[in-house]
Amino acid sequence: MTTAPIRLIVGLGNPGPEYEATRHNAGFWLADHFADDLRASFTLEKPFFAWVARARHAGQAVILAKPVTFMNKSGQAVGALARFYKLRPEEILVLHDELDLPPGAVKLKLGGGHAGHNGLRDIQSALGSPDFWRLRIGIGHPRSLGLAQQVVNFVLHPPRKDDMPGIEDVINRCRVILPQLLDGAFDRATERLHQANHS
After folding, report:
1. Domain tally for the chain?
2. Do the domain assignments include residue 53?
């Protein structure tokens, strides 16, 4: 397993106030918390198609980004940043909502498919590789939550009151492992994260 530390963290979501509280924006929520933890603030940088925040960790530059394109064009921002900063896919961490995990569950993984997630699909094609890291934030699936909603409709709605504590807990657990991710200590980060999944 690679030990290149994470240099670029990209939260996925849709821009605009009407999407702010929707499940599909879970990546944005976590990116905002990470920026707070690194005492960095986002400014709009049009050449990168994103809100960008710059921070330092252990003397190294860390970039956080929230694309201003819609979800299915997330690769534009990721591609532009990766090219400009000459980053390899394994130095990039993407934060995104995950239908296949229940609210309150989270997984850290390197590479893999996009499972129909349009943001991941576009990033994969922009980087020409699936080998970037992902923090998958469980939002549940309408079927597993017993809802009749279509998936498209489901991700563009805010989580139910009962699901929010699980999602907030995941965000807090991800914040705890941020230093390990930035140090390239993925085994330790995974262990801490997945331990909590079973506690």
Report:
1. 1
2. yes
